[in-house]
Amino acid sequence: MLSGAVSAFDGDATYYSTGLGNCSAYSQDSDFIVALSTPEYNNGAHCWQHIMVSYGGNTIDATVIDSCPGCSQYSIDLSPLAFQALAPLDAGHIPVTWWYA
User: Which positions fall inside the RlpA-like protein double-psi beta-barrel domain (predicted)?
Assistant: First the structure.
């Protein structure tokens, strides 16, 4: 049972080619990782934190390892495999709800 409200955010999710992220870690397209918008990334305050991302009845767990300067405040970039766990890559971008785990 949760002891308090969990803040959820609505935004768009896209995917990107991974590599060296702003949290100083390398990732692969097959990792479940996420890049947060610059305001949410907050100079690395959320590095290594997990977020839950939900779309179309599916929910995934992704680890924050990067920032997304082109993302609006609550939009995120996922690794290709994480995105595919929610929708086909050819969807391009999807509306998601996400929260800090």
Answer: 42-97
